[in-house]
Specification:
Helix content: over 70%
Number of helices: 3
Structural class: mainly alpha
Strand content: under 5%
């Protein structure tokens, strides 16, 4: 990937993490989960169409990033 593509992908990753964070917040608040989940799924679906990656691959990537981020906070 070119430097420009890497910058774009980093922004995409940040957006995916933001949307997963919204799901976590909704679960903790016990409201808004359906909307947050739908928003995340729509994001992953559109990204899959654009990139040619599967929704499963993208979801695993974002959830792995979220787990790594949580581990860094602990450590």
């Amino acid at each position: 990937m070119s430097e420009e593509q890497i910058k774009i992908w980093k922004k995409v990753e940040a957006k995916g993490l933001e949307k997963l964070g919204n799901i976590e917040k909704a679960l903790l608040a016990k409201e808004g989960f359906e909307k947050a989940h739908e928003d995340y799924c729509d994001f992953v679906d559109r990204l899959a169409e654009t990139t040619g990656l599967t929704t499963g691959e993208l979801d695993r990537h974002f959830t792995t990033l979220l787990a790594e981020k949580a581990e860094k906070k602990k450590g």
